[in-house]
Every structure is written in structure tokens, then in C-alpha cells.
Amino acid sequence: MLLLSPKEALLNYLCLIFLASYTAVVHADQWYITGNVSQNIMYDDNVFLTKDNPDGAIGYKLTPVINLGYQTERYNLASNLSYGLQRYLEIKKLDYNLQKYALMGEYNFTKRLTVGANTDYDISDSRQSSASILEDFSATSVRETQSASTFIDYKLTPLDNLKTSALYSKSSTQSETKITQVINKKFDLVWGHDWTERYSTKVTGFYSIYNADLTDSNTIGTNFFINYLWSETWEVFATTGGQVTESAKLSAGFLFDTGVKYQSQQLSTGISVARSLLPSNEGKLSEVDSLDFNLQYQFTYKLAASFSSSYKTTNSSGNETQSSSKKEFFNLQANINYQINPEWSVSASHQYRLQQQELIDSGGSNLFTFSLNYNWQGLQGLI
Fold first, then answer.
1. By percentage, how much of the chain surpasses pLDDT 90?
2. Which residues contact 154 (CB under 8 A, 6 or more apart)?
3. Would you call 254 exposed, middle or buried from its count of C-beta atoms within 10 A (0-12, 13-18, 19+)?
4. How many Å apart are CA 107 and CA 333, to the nearest integer?
5. Model-level pTM?
6. Which of 14, 25, 133, 250 sits at 20 to 30 Å (Cα–Cα) from 336?
């Protein structure tokens, strides 16, 4: 059973937006409202990434977004609402009403102390998540997520910063055959120090509690982050750390994320390698190794192109055997965008995806997308 009906979720967040609007009207000169509408026409020649008898389909996605905000020297309040849809002509089980509602706030008590909180509600196609390597493309599922987080940021000295945060999230993934619920709680403590204008470090300690239908685990760990600006265009970063997880059995892991970035007026690019711990929609914790590359080039003020590639491998953490759960995922994407004017833009992209899993035959897919985007400049000041 889903956590909330779409109507109930929409009403809850409209109440939050009303409260934000009431506050903003009192100081109308700080008020703004903007929006954008994205329309995508898609063709995927192998929607379910199967090796034999691939299913090709034409799809349409509409994503309207409204943004509201209010800001002063003391505090910042922002919200966004989106209620869109995804439709496929030949595969009706992929038709979803996509939703996202979010409310964010920050308050500066002093020049040193800032407190903030965020909450959001989201309904999405689980196969479009950032952890897509862990998803089962041969099945269809919709994910409903509620989350809330808070943070306290304190500047100890001009060079030292201390930040603590807490996150609670609850998600329900409904497929054709079952429903999986996942609850995640996480606590972080971060100390950062700026050694020079170019060199900074951070030390993080974290503790997470993960509860799912197939996995219950407690994880404690620490990370050390280094960032160095080699020059005005080159940047080097590295994160390394470890974590200990208590689940069906006690296990330890080594986590890292290191890479290099380059950015100029026209060209930006970067490459990184990482190992992270991610949950799937079935409630399994997995250790993911990844290699990522991206490139963006601004040909003119209006014309830009980008390219990205990613290779990921994963093994389930806990009492699953590696041979039965190892996956590989390869993603290659090219995009070109043209800004017609400040409001309108068009883009076209091609994405190739390949997912392989031991003992399971799977294939690759080519996804072609044409997008038309409208960016409403909105209203601000007195309304």
C-alpha cells in the first residue's frame, strides 16, 4: 500500500505553500515566483533491456514546475511543486503520474550560526533513479518517497566550520508483483578547515539505520575529504574512508571518491572513480564501484553540447553471495542544447544503456529524446 494518496500528498504540500505565501505577502518586495515546463518525446528500442524480443516504444513526458520563494538577510524560504506525467503508446504499464513537492528553509541566527530544514514528497519511475544500476529493468515499478532533513551549521573560526545533519526517509516501491518498503535514518557530523585559499579538508563521521523487507542494518563510518584548486581551471578532489555494517553478519568496507575537474569559459570536464554503498528498490544494500566521465562545451552563447559516460559494477552487501548478485551497468549519453531566447530552449539526446547480471540474459537499449523547454521568468517584488 502506498504511503499517501496523490490527493492527500498534494493537499499537505499546498498547506505548506499557503503558509509560505502568507509570510511572503507581508514583505512582498522579497517575494518571487518562477516556473518551467519540460516536454520530452522519447523513443526507446529496448525498454526492458532484454536480450531477446526487445520491446520498443514511443513515450511522452511532461514536467511542469512552480517555484516560490522568500528571502531576507536573516532567512530564506523556498518551495517547488511539480505534477507531471509519463505515457508510452505501446506499453501502458509504464504510464505514471510523476509528482514532486518540496519545502526548504534556512535561518541565520548570527553570522556564525545557521539552521535549516527540508522536506519533500516524490513519486517517480524507480528505473530513473540515480542508483539505476541496482534496479530491475525487466519489471515496472513506481517509487513513492517521503523525506525530512535538518542541519545546524556553525562557523567556529574564519577557517573552521562544524556542521551536523539528520535525515529521515521512507519509500515504498510498488511493482507488478510486490510492494517493498524502506526506512532510512542517517546522522552526520562534519568538520571542515580551509588551510589556504586553494586547499581545504573535511572530516565526516556518520551513523545510519536502514530497515527494509529484506535487509536490516546499522552502519557506522568516517570519511576524509581533500579539495585542492590546482589553478583557476583545474581542481583535484579525493574522499576516502571506511564503514562497518551490522546486518545478517558483520562486514567492513572501504569507501572512496577521487577525481579531477577542469573548467574554463567554454569547456568543462571531469573524471572520477568511486566506491559507495547504495540501497536498491528491493531493500538490498550493495557496494558499487564506478568510473565516470563528463564533458561540456559551449560553442556559442546559445549552443552547447555535452557528453557523459559511466561504468558501474556492484556486489550485494551482507549474506548474499557475490556470484548470484553481481551486476554491471554501462551508460553513454550525448546531448545538444540550443537556447532560442531566455524563455525557450530545445535539446536532443541519445543514451545507450547496457545492464548485465550473472545467470540472466540482458541486452542494451538506445533511447532518443527530443525536448522542448519553457522557462517562465516569473514575478518578483510587489504583486
1. 58
2. 112, 113, 114, 161, 162, 163
3. exposed
4. 40
5. 0.83
6. 133
